Structure formats: C-alpha cells, structure tokens
C-alpha cells in the first residue's frame, strides 16, 4: 500500500528568534505584532522592540498626552500630578494620567501569560508548559 498523503508544510518559525528584526513568531508565522488588530489604541504609536527571547510591543502616546486607564491617549491636564513621565515613578510603575501605576496593570499581558513589571514596562512570559506570544496568548504545549 502506498501512502499518497501530502506532507504538512514546515512552520515558518518556532520562536521570535527565528524571525527577522521587528517580527514575532505568531501562530508559527513571522508577523509584525503591530499589524494585529487592537494591539494599541488607535491614537497610540505601536513599536516593536527587538528583545529576545520574546519581542516586546510598546504602545506610546504622542507627546503632551498620557495614557488613560482604558489605554487611550488624553491631553495632560495642568495641576497637581504625581508624575509626567515614567522615570518619575518607581522602576515597576508607569506614569498614567499623572499617577504612578504598576506597569502590568496599564499594559497587561495576553491570555494565560505571566506579567512582571520592570523598567517601567510589562515583561510578559508564557508559564512553563505553555508556548506562544505572551503579549497575545500562551497555549498549553
């Protein structure tokens, strides 16, 4: 008996390190994470940091605006504020609407991912036994 099944195509990538600069391995294909829907709010600028083992997506509001709790950019209101920029806050916090808030609360990780707040950023990782892009979703291996 001859087996005529077509072999499955090889995945383009297994990890972000398999992809070119500014690209991440999403569903086994190298993609720009900023091109995915709803990564950042429409008024934010999305950029990809070439961090490894996982690429990091940053959503940044234009100057003279700050991110609100819902992620949208709002004008900075004059008056008493705790912070104007992230460096005014502790290392684990980010400046949001003039207040220092934990980075993981402002920029949460994807489904099933773990979040650590460091250097004013959310550092997202998939837990042991899970794979995927932790900024989007970690799935059971």
TrEMBL record:
<protein>
    <recommendedName>
        <fullName>EGF-like domain-containing protein</fullName>
    </recommendedName>
</protein>
<dbReference type="InterPro" id="IPR048407">
    <property type="entry name" value="Dumpy_DPY"/>
</dbReference>
<dbReference type="Pfam" id="PF21164">
    <property type="entry name" value="Dumpy_DPY"/>
</dbReference>
<feature type="domain" description="EGF-like">
    <location>
        <begin position="124"/>
        <end position="138"/>
    </location>
</feature>
<dbReference type="InterPro" id="IPR000742">
    <property type="entry name" value="EGF"/>
</dbReference>
